[in-house]
Design goal:
Blueprint lengths: L1 E3 L1 E6 L4 E9 L10 H11 L16 E9 L5 E10 L4 E3 L1
Parallel strand pairs: 1-6
Antiparallel strand pairs: 2-3, 3-4, 4-5
This protein binds zinc ion.
Zinc ion (ZN) binds next to loops.
């Protein structure tokens, strides 16, 4: 999927449409002992209907996130493009 490097988007702090720079949003480092992570590990151990390590439904594609940065106030915002896509987003010149 192709996407332009600069788009005109609404900036909530400028309260107007401004030119935004587009970058791929990085996922960042996960917290090691996050609460949801521990709960997931517990659910995999058993005592429930979930089978360990088996997924019944395979998701088609991923949600691709972009980071938009306002060219005037430098405020950043995230945007999900295209719902679930199987291909990576390429930024065009
Ligand atoms: Zn702005």
């Amino acid at each position: 999927m192709k996407f332009p490097k600069e788009i005109n988007a609404y900036c909530s702090s400028c309260r107007a449409h401004k030119v935004h720079k587009v970058k791929l949003a990085s996922k960042g480092r996960p917290r090691t002992l996050a609460k949801g992570n521990r709960a997931h590990q517990r659910s995999l151990m058993g005592h429930g209907s979930k089978r360990a390590g088996e997924k019944t439904v395979k998701k088609q594609g991923k949600k691709q996130k972009l980071m938009l940065q306002c060219s005037e106030c430098k405020k950043k915002q995230e945007r999900v493009v295209g719902g679930r896509t199987t291909k990576r987003i390429e930024l065009q010149a």
